[in-house]
Amino acid sequence: MANLNSLVSAINSVERSSFDELAIAVFNYQAKENRVFKAYLEGIGHSCQAASISELAFMPIELFKNHTIKTGDWQEETVFESSGTTGIQTSRHYVRSLKDYQVSTVAAFEECYGSLEQYTILALLPSYIERGNSGLIAMVDHFITLSQSEDSGYYLQDVNSLLDKLLLLRERGSKTLLWGVTFGLLDFVEKHQIDFPELIVMETGGMKGRRDEMLREEVHHLLKRAFHVQNIHSEYGMTELSSQAYSKGLGLFEPSRTMRALSRDINDPFEMRSYGKTGALNIIDLQNIYSCSFIETKDLGRVYENGTFEVMGRMDNSDIRGCNLMVL
Question: Global pTM?
Answer without folding.
Answer: 0.91
